[in-house]
Amino acid sequence: MKGNQWGYGKEDGPSIWHKNFPVAEGDRQSPIDIIPKEAPRDPNLGPIVLNYDQCTSLNITNNGHSVVVEFDDTDDRSVIQGGPLGNPYRLKQFHFHWGGKGCHGSEHTVEGMSYASELHLVHWNAVKYKSFGQAAEAPDGLAVLGIFLDTGDDHRWLHMITDALYMVKFKASVTDFKGFNPKCLLPSSLHYWTYLGSLTTPPLHESVIWIVLKEPIIVSEKQLGKFRTLLFSGEEEDQRMRMENNFRPPQPLKGREVRSSN
Ligand SMILES: NS(=O)(=O)c1ccc(C(=O)N[C@@H](c2ccccc2)c2cnnn2CC(=O)NCCCS)cc1
Ligand SMILES: [Zn+2]
């Protein structure tokens, strides 16, 4: 694996990442397998509060690892707060992880069971840190809201994303994506599990307060299939590699506690 190039293949995938990113074998790595009966309810954990109404989505991009919708995070217009968080965290981007045809691709698992896909809404602590990059290196710098995707009927709003995927088929492609409010991707319940972890892709910084919702959202196989029309590869590359199975498997808990909201 050359330099800081990493991927999800045999030569550059999760089992090799530790060579360039030794923290891959650290004490608070993500994702993890969540065991509900070992995640006690903590009465001090209040509800999480999402203020996304003034959010400003900017663009959608294929960064060669996932498809990412980025937001204007120059002020506190869209934040997550409450729950395990000491202050509001600013929404920066969201992206997905998914499997191959008929194979599940969530990162967190629940008692060994994985979901078809997982959505990550990435927020950073702009109260304590001056930039995302700086926050991404601090133990309380990031808060990622994880939402499982299960298959069933069409999701009534996901088409707004899947209809745009043909515009970002190749790595490093980007297109405008304004006026999208991720509130429409939330399940009805905001009950969650929470634990201290890391980015699930290199540089794997141990800077994430994870908040994983218990209730999945439902999307159709057809909608999920559109994610698999994306490519890991750039337009100029002759080798076309379908973007799928872009998930890291669960990592050792190493004595960490997982708590449950009420
Ligand atoms: N899966 S997750 O929710 O845990 C997750 C969340 C955010 C990031 C992230 O922002 N990574 C970038 C970064 C930039 C500055 C400091 C540190 C990290 C980065 C580094 N090289 N490329 N990127 C872009 C990138 O990975 N973007 C996120 C797409 C998830 S596959 C990665 C994973
Ligand atoms: Zn992610």
Automatic annotation (TrEMBL):
Catalytic activity, EC: 4.2.1.1
Cofactor: Zn(2+)
Keyword Lipid biosynthesis: no
InterPro entries, A to Z: CA_dom, CA_dom_sf, Carbonic_anhydrase_a-class, Carbonic_anhydrase_a-class_CS
Disordered: region residues: 241-262
One GO cellular component term: cytoplasm
UniProt xrefs under SUPFAM superfamilies: Carbonic anhydrase (SSF51069)
Keywords associated with the record: Glycoprotein, Lyase, Metal-binding, Zinc
Transmembrane segments: none
Domain Alpha-carbonic anhydrase intervals: 4-262
Top-tier EC class: lyase
PANTHER family: CARBONIC ANHYDRASE, CARBONIC ANHYDRASE 7
Reported function: Reversible hydration of carbon dioxide.
Identification of the protein by name: Carbonic anhydrase
Source organism of the structure: Collichthys lucidus (Big head croaker)
